[in-house]
From TrEMBL:
One Pfam family recorded for the sequence: Aldolase
Quaternary context: Homotrimer.
Cleavable signal peptide: none
Highest taxon listed in the record's lineage: Bacteria
Pathway recorded for this protein: Carbohydrate acid metabolism
Organism: Paenibacillus beijingensis
Descriptive protein name: Ketohydroxyglutarate aldolase
Gene Ontology molecular function, alphabetical: lyase activity
InterPro entries in UniProt: Aldlse_KDPG_KHG, Aldolase_TIM
Family: Belongs to the KHG/KDPG aldolase family.
Gene3D superfamilies assigned to the protein according to its UniProt record, in alphabetical order: Aldolase class I (3.20.20.70)
Keywords, alphabetical: Carbohydrate metabolism, Lyase
């Protein structure tokens, strides 16, 4: 039941912050600002040095079981999990979902074994179908910059049951188009953090996060 609840929370929140920092402390600081701005689904990539420390620290502070309006509510996951070993280590550190840049069947099987949502990266109809056959609930369309929102409806023609989350290339200007096209959620990476990293002012992440949440909610409004 917890796995399905996490999947539902990701779909309900709709925006995933994909965070790549230079250190665990850096990643935690970014995550805290994103959460304060309203993005409650946090993905710490395994490319962060000592990423497991950041995941563990955030998992201890925030909980998917907290009330949605609590300042302690957030769902912490791991990204850029290239293999099942990385996924298992992240789960043991407290990650409640796992994201990969590509479809690795062994990683999917590992996550299914422990009933943890897994979102592998896909690029083709063949990969999406294989992911569904492996029991994937949400496929990460990656890199999203190679596609347009119309890709969602094209995929959903033959595979209406596929839940797609574009990541990479999603920004405030096109987020609404992706959501209205049928994306179950979107992943936001560098556009969320670039300015803050350049200036050293991490409060900019909080402000940008609030803008993304507002854009998502606006896109979900009935026409």
């Amino acid at each position: 039941m917890k796995k399905m609840k996490i999947v539902q929370q990701i779909a309900a929140e709709g925006v995933v912050a994909v965070l790549r920092g230079s250190s665990p402390d850096d990643a935690v600081a970014m995550a805290e600002q994103a959460i304060a701005g309203g993005i409650k689904i946090i993905e710490i990539t395994m490319t962060v040095p000592f990423a497991l420390q950041a995941i563990e620290s955030l998992a201890k502070k925030y909980s998917s079981q907290a009330a949605p309006d609590s300042d302690r509510y957030a769902v912490i996951g791991a990204g850029t999990a290239l293999d099942p070993e990385s996924a298992r280590a992240a789960i043991l550190a407290g990650a409640e979902f796992v994201v990969g840049p590509s479809l690795n069947p062994d990683t999917v099987k590992l996550c299914n074994r422990y009933r943890v949502p897994v979102m592998p990266g896909v690029m083709t109809i063949k990969e999406i179908q294989e992911a569904l056959e492996l029991g994937v609930d949400i496929c990460k369309l990656f890199p999203g910059s190679l596609y347009s929102p119309s890709t969602i409806s094209a995929v959903k023609g033959p595979l209406p049951q596929a839940n797609l989350m574009p990541t990479g290339g999603v920004n405030l200007a096109n987020l609404g188009d992706w959501i209205r096209a049928g994306a179950v959620a979107v992943g936001i990476g560098s556009d969320l953090t670039n300015e803050a990293v350049k200036t050293g002012d991490y409060s900019l992440i909080r402000r940008k996060s609030a803008e993304y949440v507002a854009a998502y909610r606006n896109a979900k409004q009935p026409v």
